[in-house]
Amino acid sequence: MSNNPKRYSCKQCGDPFDAYPPDDYYTYAMIKKCFVCDALGLGKHVERNYECNGCDTKNTVYWYYDHEHTRIEIINAQSKRRSIGYIIDKFKTK
Ligand SMILES: [Zn+2]
Ligand SMILES: [Zn+2]
Fold first, then answer.
1. Domain ranges, residue 24
2. What is the pTM of this model?
3. Residue 31 CA, ligand 1 centroid: distance in Å
4. Is 68 inside a domain boundary?
5. Per-residue pLDDT tens digits for 4-53
């Protein structure tokens, strides 16, 4: 395992910044939350904010440990997301 930083671009101004992993465990960086973990409430991540040197924008990086989901988990997450979308659509039409 390494502590090599991941290089990202600031979402605001595009300046590069280095995101260092919080520890040796959470080394898998994502710019968005893993939708399966999010939908199923698994919460296997650490959020870190990195301030851009150029414009002071806070860029959020989600650190996960290298994990995989089973097909069942992915299907469950997709159907959960669909039902959430359905509830929101229903609400809007009122
Ligand atoms: Zn910036
Ligand atoms: Zn996940």
1. 6-92
2. 0.74
3. 15
4. yes
5. 788 999 999 999 999 999 989 999 898 889 999 999 988 779 999 999 99
